Amino acid sequence: MSVRLSAPLAADLLPVAGVRLGVAEAGIRKANRRDLTVIALAEGSHVSGVFTLNRFCAAPVHLSKAHLAAGKGIRALVINTGIANAGTGEQGMAAAQTTCEELASQLGIEADQVLPFSTGVILEHLPVERLVAGLPVACADLRSDAWFDAAHAIMTTDTVAKARSMQISLAGHTVTLTGIAKGAGMMKPNMATMLSFLATDAAISQKLLDALLHEVADQSFNSITVDGDTSTNDSFVLIASGASGAPEITDTASADYATLRAAVLEMSVWLAQAIVRDGEGATKFISVVVEGGADRAECRKVAYAVAHSPLVKTAFFASDPNLGRILAAIGYAGIEDLDVAKLKVWLGSRGEEVLVAEQGGRASSYVEEAGSRIMQAEEISVRIALGRGVAAATVWTCDFSYDYVKINADYRS
Amino acid sequence: MSVRLSAPLAADLLPVAGVRLGVAEAGIRKANRRDLTVIALAEGSHVSGVFTLNRFCAAPVHLSKAHLAAGKGIRALVINTGIANAGTGEQGMAAAQTTCEELASQLGIEADQVLPFSTGVILEHLPVERLVAGLPVACADLRSDAWFDAAHAIMTTDTVAKARSMQISLAGHTVTLTGIAKGAGMMKPNMATMLSFLATDAAISQKLLDALLHEVADQSFNSITVDGDTSTNDSFVLIASGASGAPEITDTASADYATLRAAVLEMSVWLAQAIVRDGEGATKFISVVVEGGADRAECRKVAYAVAHSPLVKTAFFASDPNLGRILAAIGYAGIEDLDVAKLKVWLGSRGEEVLVAEQGGRASSYVEEAGSRIMQAEEISVRIALGRGVAAATVWTCDFSYDYVKINADYRS
User: Which phi-psi region, left, alpha or beta, contains residue B79 (left: φ > 0; alpha: ψ -120 to 50)?
Assistant: First the structure.
């Protein structure tokens, strides 16, 4: 089940110069499924990453951070599904280290030029010998047109592969962006969930790439929620191979930077939204837009309070325009001096938007029929004006259905 | 459905000298149900209250706070179900004010000696004329032995009435405590939920009563969660009529204060836990005990992260000893310098306790059979040692079942 999310077509996913991908069946947790992906990068590629803040973060997260910090130039990524290698202590660190060493030896690079990623069951040990045995198979498979395969090989309980390509023009050169992501729940049952890899053959300085990554992550992957849980393995990696021939971008004031930034943002938002659309048990896709805040932080607080409320989410599942639940969530979001008399709330879908609350209560113009009609849609927006300033923030989420409980109560494969 | 919660027997609920209660069928929202309760207090009673922090708090909450602050001596409480009088603006304030004035006139007291409380659907207006018409009926019904009736009259979608009495001895005088509560969800669908009234005929100074209320509320009603939502109307009121004849308690170092404090705490914890046991769709009662924290605040953060996690709550529903979900919730609770290697986690039930995690992963002594056996119980404890200090906190919650979604997706009566 997913909300208006189509599976990608292999032909729509464009190769990115300087980036090759290979997959293998390593039998990490189950036989006969592609569970190992290697991404090899041309020399000179710039790579930037953001990772989960969970204190129980996985061994590969620790190692990826360390390898990025080492600054030797990342040349490969390796991703396994099945086992998350989180909550595995020293043995887990050793397994991730071995993975990097073995892949480095295959590719003739250094171990700290490899970023490892794992997703799957936590508290179980990675069968590192089987993973290592799969590396030569994945390396032998390295091709530039394997994004479709990679998008599928990183899936766990996602119901639809998430992948997209775009092309832009920078200084007369055609530049390609292709990205893949996996999600399912913000944190799947035992699964450590959100991974996304976005590559371009644009050339951009490391410093600007880092800044771009953080700006974009804040407005995409850090603006979604399925169930409020934060995984042990969440990672978002931005790769710029520089192989397109376009000149390196070194100035945030340049037109090229603006063009690249817009494309990276669009791709990232699309991939992040795709994760929500394929959220566990999702039947509705909901945008919570908060504006008129004193600062972005308080807008995000309100948006997340609404997006996390089990009462709001079950009301969306039921297509019930239950304004009381939305107003109550705004009320407990933590803005101590919020003046509810200045607040306005609109519900929207399919191009229609209706004022539902103002002056501390139901809007006098509001009729329940309009709310009910809007709530039938698969995509719904809640717009909240706080009347305190000019800051804004948007959070995307899904509803809370019987299937969410079913998936999470039944799951442990 | 409730977890090990028995309905009170009328004979077990003891009159509190100086406190009389009366109920009526006012037809606030539905006909033929008792939906109006008046509690009349002897002159000289001390009353203290804590209220929701929700910015969308109801009109009666505003008025109750103002009347307590006026300091004229509270002589009556009036509670209606059906309509919460929240999100109702100026009209709502006027309705609550009228309620107080009319009751005051019935009882020959001042309007600001009355505390009004409402619970029910929010965003709808209180039919104040029907409520006012019910007041003489409730006042004519005033009796000291009506706690059983009042416990039922304040229920909304609670499945079991929540009430209990205790007796203690203070300076040779028998002192009685009787309390009632209503809950159902931390915040019911459209309902504004948690109300509790605890009365004693002990005599205690206003200053000490206020301090006792805040201390007790923190360890009882402010230590429970059903779904993480905070209602617009939550209120907990402590009444000391002083009519027992026991001398007034004015010193926190006295033995009488210690005895009274212990009884009020025990009653409040029992009433708060009763609300969780009757939580929406609850099938399990869970105690999350966090110890070894640097301070109580961080212990509460961790306890609430675990108690709020939909993934943890669905695992309890499924009787699945899913340690990964508990560890992940601890990891994202917001303690930035948490050393997961020092953490220990135990699962317990029916007098048995098993170490399940230590040194950043599964405990080597842990076998899944032990976890599975514990998770079958209706009452389960999760004990978490942070290894950072000596502070501790406990939060009580329930599991997250199909019925939670069903109740909240179907509800709008």
Answer: beta
**Helical packing angle, B255-277 and B206-219, nearest 10°:** 40
Task: Verify whether the Cβ–Cβ distance A229 to B309 is below 8 Å.
Answer: yes
Fold match flag (B10-277 vs B285-410) = no
Residues of A classed as catalytic: 193
Per-residue CA distances from B253 to A158, B257, B268, B284, B287 (Å): 61, 7, 21, 39, 31
A interface mutation test: which of B88, B157, B314 has the most A CBs within 10 A? B314
Contact status, residue B260 vs residue B170, Cβ threshold 8 Å: yes
**Which whole-number Å values give the CA distances from A31 to A124, A148, A322, in the listed order?**
17, 21, 47
Q: What residues does each domain of chain B span?
A: 10-277, 285-410
What phi, psi does A347 have (nearest 5°)?
Answer: -110, 140
- Tens-digit pLDDT profile for residues A166-212: 999 999 999 999 999 998 654 433 334 789 999 999 999 999 999 99
pLDDT single digits (tens) A307-356? 988 888 888 998 988 888 899 899 989 899 999 999 999 999 999 999 99
Reply yes or no on domain B10-277 having CATH 3.40.50.720: no
The CB-side HSE value for A343 (13 A sphere, CA atoms) comes to: 28
Q: What are the distances in angstroms from CA B99 to CA B67, B84, B134, B227?
A: 13, 13, 10, 32
> Residue B187: closest CA among chain A residues belongs to which residue?
A311
Regions in chain A scoring below 50 on pLDDT = 186-192, 412-413
B248 Cβ contact partners less than 8 Å away, ≥ 6 residues apart = B203, B204, B205, B242
The answer to whether the CB atoms of A229 and B121 lie below 8 A apart is no
Q: Cβ–Cβ of A123/B55 closer than 8 Å?
A: no
Q: What is the mean pLDDT of residues B165-190?
A: 83
Helix axes A89-107, A59-70, angle to 10 degrees: 50
B296-308 vs B323-331: helix crossing angle, rounded to 10: 140
Tokens representing A303 are 């948006």
- Which of B79, B133, B85 has its CA nearest to residue B106? B133
Does the domain at B285-410 match CATH 3.10.20.600? Answer given as no
For tokens 């107003």, the residue is A327
Residues of A in contact with B402 (CB under 8 A): 402, 405-406, 409
Sheet strands (E) in A52-120: 76-80, 114-118
For A171-274, list the strands marked E by DSSP.
Answer: 173-182, 195-200, 224-225, 235-240
User: Hunting for tokens 């959100």 — which residue is that?
Assistant: A194
Sheet holding B19-24, edge to edge: B19-24, B36-41, B76-80, B114-118
